[in-house]
């Protein structure tokens, strides 16, 4: 055997190059192996996903078969509206499902897929329900989600169905119909006006009471305000002057555009002294989205100082919608509220902020009164009357005592402390 020392390596594998190339070759090998491993894993995951989808579809089909095939499922897992057993749907949505009735999984899937059905499919499903022997209550339960979906796709069809039921003596289903009328008025003002006039002429709405009549009239006007402002104004002016503010205030508003439309109508048709209260009524409904969006809305409608003051005063009497609901109020919340009040009602921000906090504690059912009082103290550390004094005075006015009796001690002015400590 030859001595290994006598072996001659090729020039390209000199000891120096071995030190460089061999580790590099090892890295290349590892890299190629990892790429191939990654491809195999991706292929495996893809196959597992197909298997999981197939298992889900089989489970869905088995569930439908076990519960009396309440809803036929096609190859993609979609429900065929023409084969739905609406009696079992009604039982499930009424909480009265029997052992062979619709499962929770089927019910949830059906509600979700209704949103994807065409207007024709929704109408066909409603015709099945209307042709059944359901009583009025069960018919409304089964038809409600269908009508809600149909209102978005074809509001005229939803209104036509309601009219057919009323004429046939089956009672009128008012579910979502005001939104259908509003939607139709935005697309076809003439058709919407004609529909409501027919209902009124035939006496189909008046038996439901004045509240329902105002609901439909308001929906028509707010829909017309988007498509034909002049027609909306004429419709409002056809109402008795003493009822216009009530009609505008009872409208269901769903967007800042709706609020702006109502405010324009109010300024054109109401007495000047009625407008601020109406503006306060319709804008405070939007406070659930927070103080900043409400400020933007007031800017958008060009709210006058009188209107802003009315909004601030109304908010101070029903404050919970615009304040945090999932935690205790803190000093930062109070400072933000105080700044908002100062913008809307300069000169009255202290009293209105204090009143808002008072109602949040005692009238809104919010727990943690002592913590709110401490937040007021922290937002007014010098005790000079910024928020603490108005808050304590308001409490005394309604014969209440602060949860923390030492709060009065933080008032800087001795005369005010004495006044607050005196019996009411």
Radius of gyration over alpha carbons? 34 Å
Strand content: under 5%
H/E element sequence = HHHHHHHHHHHHHHHHHHHH
- Shape by Cα distribution: elongated
Q: Mind describing the biggest β-sheet?
A: none
State the low-pLDDT regions, or none: 1-13, 51-76
Mean pLDDT: 75
> Distance between termini?
118 Å
Structural class: mainly alpha
Helical amount: 55-70%
Query: How many individual β-strands?
Result: 0
Number of helices: 20
What would your notes on this structure say?
- With 424 residues, this protein is mostly helical.
- Among the domains are: 1-51; 326-424, no CATH class.
- The chain has 20 helices and no strands.
- α7 (177-187) runs parallel beside α9 (210-227).
- It is elongated.
- The protein starts with 14 loop residues before the first helix and ends with a helix.
- Mean pLDDT is 75; it is low at 1-13 and 51-76.
